[in-house]
Amino acid sequence: MRSLVTAGASIYHRQPDNSTRSHPMTRLFHHLRPLSLVLLAATLLAGPWSLHAAARAGAAEPLTVYKSPTCGCCEHWLDHVHQRGFITEVEHPEDLGGEKARLGVAPRHQSCHTAVSRDGFIFEGHIPAGLITRFLEDRPEGAIGLAVPGMPVGSPGMEMGERFDPYDVLLLMADGSSRVYARVSSAAEQY
User: Domains of the chain by range and CATH?
Assistant: First the structure.
């Protein structure tokens, strides 16, 4: 099953309900969350300058996310990236491990989900959205993406109350090597 999710709206392919909401705009506004409408209105009132700034800041960057359909922490991570302006298309491959191998994610770097940018960069695991944006704005030479191996407690999508385990975000290189891209020492650094 595939769905396209944006910050505040889900788009599913289905037949329109013409019984009570026959006008296309009525159906559109029915599916958008109230916050999305406020953000849309604010953006339209602010003019093209805000659209340009949002695009430069990584807003609306599409990511294809490969995950298990039953993984709850992946859903929480998706919420995290949506709240920070990313658009995701979610896929549930039958062989998630095989998909990761096809993308070049070594077993030592794997986590529960893999996101891929439109330019083919890989974001493995519970990476803070701000670090994905930073990577996409200033792409290190020879890098194929970022990874947070495992599932560190307190990372985006893995929140457990006040618990937090510091973790490293790794820079994945095309030659198969990795090095520390960022050290996340506190929950506050992620947001």
Answer: 57-190 (3.40.30)
Output 24 or 190, whichever has higher pLDDT.
190
Task: Find, among 168, 112, 116, the residue nearest to 145 by Cα.
Answer: 116
Closest to 81 in 3D by CA, of 101, 64, 103, 97? 64
**pTM score, two decimals?**
0.70
27-69 confidence digits (pLDDT tens) = 333 333 443 433 444 443 433 333 333 434 444 689 999 999 9
* Distances from the Cα of 148 to the Cα of 48, 81, 93, 99, 114, angstroms: 36, 15, 21, 17, 10
CA torsion angle for 125, 126, 132, 134 (degrees, to 10)? -130
CA distance 103 to 98: 9
